[in-house]
Specification:
The protein is an alpha+beta fold. It has one domain. The chain is built from 14 helices and 13 strands. Strands 3-11-4-5 form a 4-stranded antiparallel beta sheet. Strand 8 and strand 9 form a beta hairpin. The longest helix is centred in the first third of the chain and has 30 residues. The N and C termini lie far apart (about 55 Å).
């Protein structure tokens, strides 16, 4: 299938700003659609998303608290705006989205996929979980050519997916992988690859505008560091990664949870978990991109955050798969196709429903983003179905423009006219109460819970399992 090689995703303009607005609108529509989906399956109850208290080692307690308060204010604003659209669409003053805090990080703590996973995790011995964390984080052998051979990725955003079978055995572990995608990738659909002279390329990769393959996280120089931290690059030939071609390829990142969900489908049993490992990432929550894939496949994340899902990608092929010892219920390629088909239909539903809610309340959509919304609505109406990948691919394209998901929402949506009850800047969606002169919002009174000493401990690698 021929790819879109225009200078923006939807074709509303040629600049980086046009791409950013398009990506904002696409994400906002998907998030609103997911909220409507969750409200329906929860019988009208609100869906919750979470934020992680700041644990940046380069900041003191006061600076971390200031960052937390800004994040809370932004998350609260996003809830008010989304709830206005959702509640107007549903014609009732209930449901929507609220916010809270991610579960407290502890080594061995895991994100759970579905209620079954939550029950399984409750049985895990904390000492065993901490040992598993140390094992997954530790180097099992000497690095070769700068890479941790056969290891889990331990760098920024390091999550290790785990499959636990119905007997309680951990049978497979899979971390985030980087995949090079092109027009020949099976089930790739119609993706967007901006041309070499696109303004957005120079903006996203200012130091690598002539070298970076679109979608790379962090630019060219970071790739060697990611490899040293254990990330695996695919496809491979002769055991070595095939270098991406910036003229024909884009780059995507498939998270461990997604890979493990496909394994549970392959073997017809088990539950998927994801453990945050390394010393840079402490959120016990799934990104919105992973969460949407999980919703589509019937297993909600135990916690969802609105941070970054940069260049997030589903699984396209099985070359990188780490199978368990269980026999096939179906082949891994069939399992991938099954999961992706459900995700494709889900994204069609989310984007169509989200766009409808936004179009129904135009004053709550940023005036500068309305052109992108109109173009997205037209493309979905003319081309998207539950069977094709148009909606899915537009969402994936939006994620290749790197930006916080929370910022995407608050860029695309504004406070407009005719606010419904509670859908204004004064309502606290964490505490579910109105604020006022004598009642402060959570974002006004919050103090970061981590001492400087605790933050240093978080960033300190665990003791090795074996003394050298």
């Amino acid at each position: 299938m021929v790819w879109n090689i225009g200078k923006s995703i939807l074709g509303t303009g040629d600049t980086r700003v046009d791409v950013e607005r398009e990506a904002d609108v696409i994400f906002a529509a998907a998030f609103i659609g997911a909220t409507l989906f969750q409200n329906d399956r929860k019988g009208g109850r609100a869906w919750r998303v979470d934020m992680e208290p700041n644990s940046d080692i380069d900041k003191n307690l006061d600076a971390r608290t200031a960052d937390d308060r800004a994040s809370m204010r932004g998350l609260n604003d996003a809830c008010s705006k989304v709830n206005q659209l959702v509640r107007t669409q549903l014609a009732r003053d209930e449901g929507g989205v609220v916010w809270g805090l991610t579960p407290t990080f502890g080594r061995g703590g895991m994100i759970q996929a579905g209620e079954g996973a939550q029950r399984e995790y409750a049985k895990v011995n904390p000492t065993y979980a901490k040992t598993a964390f140390s094992y997954l984080s530790a180097a099992q052998r000497a690095a070769k050519d700068g890479q941790r051979a056969d290891e889990m990725y331990i760098g920024r955003g390091a999550y290790c997916g785990l499959v636990v079978d119905d007997d309680g055995n951990a049978v497979s572990a899979m971390s985030t992988i980087r995949t090079t995608l092109n027009e020949n990738t099976p089930d790739i659909g119609e993706r967007w690859r901006p041309p070499a002279d696109a303004d957005v390329r120079a903006a996203q990769y200012p130091r690598d505008k002539d070298d970076a393959t679109w979608g790379l996280i962090g630019g060219v120089a970071l790739q060697d560091i990611l490899a040293q931290q254990g990330m695996r690059f695919y496809p491979q030939s002769g055991g070595m990664p095939v270098s991406p071609n910036k003229h024909t390829d884009i780059v995507g990142y498939t998270h461990g949870m997604i890979r493990c969900i496909c394994e549970t489908v392959r073997i017809g049993q088990g539950t998927a978990f994801e453990m945050s490992i390394g010393v840079d990432t402490f959120k016990l929550a799934s990104c919105m991109s992973c969460s949407s894939f999980m919703m589509a496949n019937g297993v909600d994340a135990s916690s969802t955050h609105l941070g970054r899902g940069e260049s997030w990608s589903p699984y396209y092929g099985s070359q990188s798969h780490n199978p368990s010892y269980h026999a096939d219920k179906m082949s891994i390629d069939d399992a991938i196709r099954h999961c992706n088909s459900r995700y494709t239909a889900f994204m069609h539903q989310c984007l169509r429903n989200g766009v409808a809610a936004m179009a129904n309340q135009p004053s709550w959509v940023n005036e500068k983003h309305r052109g992108a919304l109109a173009k997205l609505e037209l493309i979905l109406a003319q081309r998207s179905t539950a069977q094709n990948t148009v909606a899915r691919d537009l969402f994936l394209d939006a994620m290749t423009y790197h930006k916080s998901d929370l910022l995407r929402l608050n860029s695309a949506l504004v406070y407009g006219s005719g606010a419904r009850p509670s859908c204004d800047a004064s309502y606290d969606w964490c505490q579910n109460r109105s604020t006022g002169p004598d009642i402060k919002g959570t974002w006004e009174s919050w103090v970061n819970p981590h001492t400087d000493e605790e933050v240093r401990a978080l960033h300190t690698p665990p003791d090795p399992l074996l003394k050298q």
